[in-house]
Amino acid sequence: MIHSLFLVNASGDIFLEKHWKSVVSRSVCDYFFEAQERATEPENVPPVIPTPHHYLISVLRHRIYFVAVIQSEVPPLFVIEFLHRVVDTFQDYFGVCTEAAIKDNVVVVYELLEEMLDNGFPLATESNILKELIKPPTILRTMVNTITGSTNVGEQLPTGQLSVVPWRRTGVKYTNNEAYFDVVEEIDAIIDKSGSTITAEIQGVIDACVKLTGMPDLTLSFMNPRLLDDVSFHPCVRFKRWEAERILSFIPPDGNFRLLSYHVSSQNLVAIPVYVKHNISFREGSSQGRFDLTLGPKQTMGKAVEAVLVSSQLPRGVLNANLNASQGTYTFDPVTKMLTWDVGKINPQKLPSLKGTMSLQAGASKPDENPTINIQFKTQQMAISGLKVNRLDMYGEKYKPFKGIKYMTKAGKFQVRT
Amino acid sequence: MPYLGSEDAVRELRRALSNPNVQSDQLRYRNTVLKAIRAMSQGVDVSDLFSEMVKACATVDIVQKKLVYVFLCSYATLNPELSLLVINTLRKDCQDPNPMVRSLALRNMTNLRLPSLVEYVEQPLAAGLRDRAACVRRVAVLGWAKLHNLQPDAEIDAAVVNELYGLLRDPDPVVMVNCLRALEEILKKEGGVAINKPITHHLLNRLKESDVWGQCEVLRILQRYHPQSEDELFDILSLLDASLVSPHPPVMAATLGLFLGLCSGLPAVSLAALERVRGPLLAACGSTSRETRFTALCHIQLLLRSLPGLMGAHYKRFFCGYAEPAYIKQRKMQVLVELVNDENVAMLLDELKGYCTDVNPETAQAAISAIGRIGRSYSDRCLEILTGLLGLKQEHITSAVVQTMCDLVWVCPQCSDTVCSALEGCEEMLQDSQGRQALLWLLAAYGERVSSAPYTLEGFIDRVRSEASLGVKMELLTTTMRLFLCRPSETQDMLGRLLHYCIEEEMDMCVRDQALLYYRLLHCGIEETHKVLHGQRSDPSLGVLIGRPAEPINQWAYSFNTLEPLRQAGVETEPASRGSPEHVTFDPKPNTDLSDTLNCSQIEKLGTPISGQLLPFFFAEPLKFHQVGWGASVHSHFQISPEMFNRVQVRALAGPLKDIHRVVPKPLLCYLGCVLRFVVLLEDEPSPQSEVQSALEHVFIQDVSVHCCIHLSLNPD
Q1: Assembly ipTM
Q2: Do A239 and B242 count as a contact with CB atoms less than 8 A apart?
Q3: Where found in the cell (chain B) (predicted)?
């Protein structure tokens, strides 16, 4: 199925390769490099590139291309999903998935790839099982390893593979039994000139960190489960109960895992937590343009909007921007024409604004399109969809665990057209 | 990769590895091996250490074993003789009480990939199939597939195959799926695993136990099964219903693929299944992974061919974000075009208009041509936008707009007035050859209405010497000829100059031939010339976008969940389903994205109503056709004197015709093609000569070189 995997960085160097069947020469990547050269932006490299004898299916994450070489017809979604799983696993193991991290941990990377695929077929992809086969490197362990010479390879047979519940190993023990759930929602929206919403969509996840002894059986119920549109569960969740009672019932994996992810689409009304008042204009014949931007909180249920970062790609003709920020700092890169304004927290009493003029290239005509403004923000203690966890119960074990839940809303692809 | 100081490093490593002191100290030994592996991954050639590493393999330490195996598998092919030494250790490990060691040894034994070792590997593999640990069985099962790949010609051991079939009932789901995978590979020549009723039901019942990957595999293989009764079919379908809305896109896609395969005789059920996957597909379109989004979009395009209304209410989900990659934007626009209706047209056009000024020229072009396609149904609004875009005076935008107008006029002749008035003053902005070709075509078709047409042409003719593009030169010749027919006094002089240049000085044979043809044509008299050159100016039958008949699902079901919908080509969904065969002028997009597996089951469709007749269709160079050696028989078929065929090229289509499901008609070069180049597709074999002749008579002109391309029999069955 998957013949080989090449890891290519943004400058077009192969820094890792792994072959599961026969060795495929590196030259197959030339087709990929060609496409990479043709694409103006790194993201523009098409994900599927046909070559005379192979198909190259690639995934770009963290500025690294994961290029899978395919020799026969395959379901494309399958390969793409698998490549993402590989990246997720690396991230899980090394904290970050950068070229440097992969090069530092090259031995672990090879071991992981060897376990994840056999003869091109996915074998063990569940992070819990992998972690028993190959221990993830930590700073402490790296140090201990260099002194004692031990490595990251698990020395026992992973029990999980034989246990009844494939995602949880038996005999887990903790002194503090705790279960934390983070409800994180990302809001993707396009707001048009006049401030009305063109599209808005919420992508939410519930990430869990469960450290409980034994084989606990948890149930989690929501105040308003009907909100969730397209829900995707961790395999541990009993789907029948969700369909019948809208209750999440599961035996959790040990440690960190993603319990579910969901969408709340534009069918339901999506609340927009910030608004932008803008006035960006260029006049014909003048070498000056006006720039005026004010941010304010909208539907936030009284919670503060924090970590606000505004960025905008100004038109090519703009030479410089002379602006005045009432709060935070702004930078303008005259080469990339990228304007970034780090606002921080929005104070509803005194709305942050950025005003001033832009100087244009002399003689250049008026830019024909106005810039788009991208906004990032965070709101703690609130899930913008209104999702609320009702209660969490545990069965099957005697002790009383500590339970915690946290809500957060972030901006995903949030953009305002001007 | 050359590595500075690598020789020293290797020498040092070898010394350390063979040092008895190191060997006796477990930790130091393991560390040294680790160093060697690290050096290997940095590109140092450490193959010289092979014999030392073989020795290091004989250890009780699993970790060290694992490292050594990594080394051995990479260098075994370079040292086949020495690898023989490893086999003994590996075989001993296969008897180890620890199942992990057994599976590790087995996996690496098969990963050495040396045909010479096969005889030593077979016995432990056979034992592995009967191991009591599931992880060993998993490896052993796949091991047989690897072994088979090593010697693809070797005879298949029936006992092993039987045993693998037996293991389909293994309690471990991964072993079950691996058996399927292994059998698929081993029995490739016989068409893969044999799927019968008990196996199907067994697999379906255990589908839930396996992981996502396993489910995809099982669903894919089950496509080969044909249920014996309708009851059985519906039992299977209801079992699969839950996976159809699976949150995992691969599983969802695989299930739908199986559904479509099973229900090929029940279109209503298939349509219901499509409705059902709408939710999951839309969710995949909003996935965080760009690649998944892209793939989902491509598949939605397929679905829309049969169910145009499927996504109607969700059109806003296909609006492009600013930071999305170009390939997603372009696909989204293609989907948007399909979703247009009376209510949303204003909103959609507004949105598309915004994309026309995208920084990426390809995206801008895609947006403009999307507007043009909507223009077939809503021509006024779209023309307004298009003419507005000309005002921006941007090279790539102007070129795209002119090309789009050219397409638009071809299907909507009522637009021609607006287009003609918009054309004035465009030629300075046009730099690329496609844009200029389109402009020339428009001038040829509507030259009498564009007052500045002769001046524009004069400019082109003055620069013809420095013209690099063949297409532009050919188009220029035809345009000048046609303009000469309607405005002789203004163009006579320049036509003379152009023909003189093309015949006397031009190096390219095609241009020269074309010019000669026109020259001789003019000798035949103006009447004759007019008859030949007066091609079609438009083909409204290609028609409007909305209210178009939906294609049956079977047209595309075979390509669902494969790589085909993701290919660049076939982007335009153009149903060329009407029109009399003589007038169907096919011409692929001369510029870009036509793939080599040009598709055209449309042709077959066209062929059916006129069964027994032949079906000429015309093409230009960019189509990739293979040449076949068929020259001699052509003459006898046509019974025309050989000199007619100055440069006969007989060609057949590159792919089997059944794979070819779309040909994009485009006005560019088309009537030029009428005269010079065409492929003849014959519907029935029995009586080709007479029919070919009679049909071609009105096209053939005496004393002209004709490129005749003949492909017999569309439909062998």
Answers
A1: 0.73
A2: yes
A3: Endomembrane system
